[in-house]
Amino acid sequence: MTPVSGSHFSIFDANFLKFSYRFTQKTNFTDKEALYPHQNLSYLLQFFTSSNLFRSNQLEEQKLSQSYQVAILGATGAVGTELISLLEERNFPVANLKLLSSPRSAGKTLSFRGEPVTVEAVGDRSFDGVDLVLASAGGSVSKAWAKAIVEAGAVMVDNSSAFRMDPHVPLIIPEINPEAAHDHQGIIANPNCTTILMAIAVWPLHTIQPVRRILAATYQSASGAGALAMEEVKAQAQAILNDEAVPTEYFPYPLAFNVFPHNSPLDDQGYCQEEMKMVNETHKIFGDSSLKIKATCIRVPVLRAHSEAVTLEFDAPFDLGAARQALQQAPGVKFVEDWEQNYFPMPLDASGQDDVLVGRIRHDISNPCGLELWLSGDQIRKGAALNTVQIAELLAERELLRTSSRETVGTR
Ligand SMILES: NC(=O)c1ccc[n+]([C@@H]2O[C@H](COP(=O)([O-])OP(=O)(O)OC[C@H]3O[C@@H](n4cnc5c(N)ncnc54)[C@H](OP(=O)(O)O)[C@@H]3O)[C@@H](O)[C@H]2O)c1
């Protein structure tokens, strides 16, 4: 393979990690496989031949010379600004970047690759010639513009919940179900942040021994409700310390020095939308609607990064060593455990990190087939913007974006 640089390094790097991960997951060979080592070899060859690592050099060189017209819808928000940073940081092949918002932020200037880009109010001609739209402006905005985006020939990777459960829309975590990208019809949905963080930690265990039931409790930060909600919590803390009236524009109650159940609408069973997203989206991503899942979602006065306490139930006891090894090797996971120091994942440590921090693995003392874990993950990065950019990289790598308006890298 020729040395790779720039944007494609991250793509190949991710492939290699995925390959290594899948192979290491296969270390729990069955007795039959252990008896017939050539079958392990054929497994290895199968991954090598299906891996993009071994595509022709010519194709890779051709892809390196191409880039895409990209638009971010919701560019000024918590997720939007992170998308801009990640496109730059991961050197995604952007020929031109268009930043779109509501009229409120039109004219504002943001920076991309050290150059100013003026934010435009989204309008009828916004998607002309655009290849890829990364949408993070909320469900109603995504619904309002999806048709125009697809008709303009662009692929939309959407952060909102608008299309996640649409059977024609793939719902993707690249570490788990990248193949679903091939079924896209113009829209790909990014899962809910709490779902992504939980799925990234559970999937490596599920591939060793199928999980039958997941019980989750979340501890969700203020920024999960947007950039302005995070500012509101800071203002609330200041107001409480100053003994002043506490502002509650973005949250129904003061969140500073407080905790309350997630404020999304409740259903007849008493579950809020956020909780049911974790159930329904995990079913779709894992491709298994028989998996029993329940969640309790709680907002906590943390500025950034969500945490989750997750209890897993299996058909048989899960070996703790095997669980730790699987999580240490899993892509997208950083294993964090120091039992002597009582040091485990924390949102402060997870903030700004790509990996989901997972640790405090222990058996459930109330269930011999139960396993417990604790995680913290930056929900603006892996829970939203990073996963979106990883989907974009997947689309570029597998040539699932249109080619008509590609330009040579460096022409922006
Ligand atoms: N925050 C998270 O942790 C997180 C995680 C996962 C998924 N998400 C999802 O990502 C989406 C964005 O969330 P966020 O937290 O980034 O929200 P946010 O900070 O409130 O940002 C919202 C963005 O949407 C733009 N916008 C609002 N109304 C618009 C309109 N009518 N037309 C065009 N643009 C409009 C805003 O532009 P203005 O500056 O002009 O108002 C802003 O750029 C939501 O669907 C959310 O559920 C968020």
Write the layout of secondary structure elements.
Layout: H1 7-25, H2 31-35, H3 37-50, H4 57-64, E1 68-73, H5 78-89, E2 94-101, E3 109-112, E4 115-118, E5 120-121, E6 132-135, H6 139-151, E7 155-158, E8 187-189, H7 193-206, E9 211-220, H8 227-241, E10 260-261, H9 273-286, E11 292-299, E12 306-314, H10 320-329, E13 333-335, H11 347-350, E14 356-363, E15 370-377, H12 381-397
Parallel strand pairs: 1-2, 1-6, 2-5, 6-7, 7-8, 9-11, 13-14
Antiparallel strand pairs: 3-4, 9-12, 10-11, 12-15, 14-15
Helix pairs in contact: 1-12, 5-12, 7-9
Quick description:
The chain is of the alpha/beta class and 412 residues long.
Task: Give a verbal description of the structure.
This protein has 412 residues and is of the alpha/beta class. It folds into three domains: 54 residues; 141 residues, NAD(P)-binding Rossmann-like Domain (Rossmann fold, 3-Layer(aba) Sandwich), CATH 3.40.50; 185 residues, Dihydrodipicolinate Reductase, domain 2. Helix content is 35%, strand content 20%. The chain has twelve helices and 15 strands. The chain has a seven-stranded mixed sheet with strand order 10-11-9-12-15-14-13. Strand 1, helix 5 and strand 2 form a beta-alpha-beta unit. Helix 5 packs across helix 12 and helix 7 packs parallel to helix 9. The structure holds NADP nicotinamide-adenine-dinucleotide phosphate. The site of NADP nicotinamide-adenine-dinucleotide phosphate has 29 residues, from helix 5, helix 6, helix 8 and helix 12.
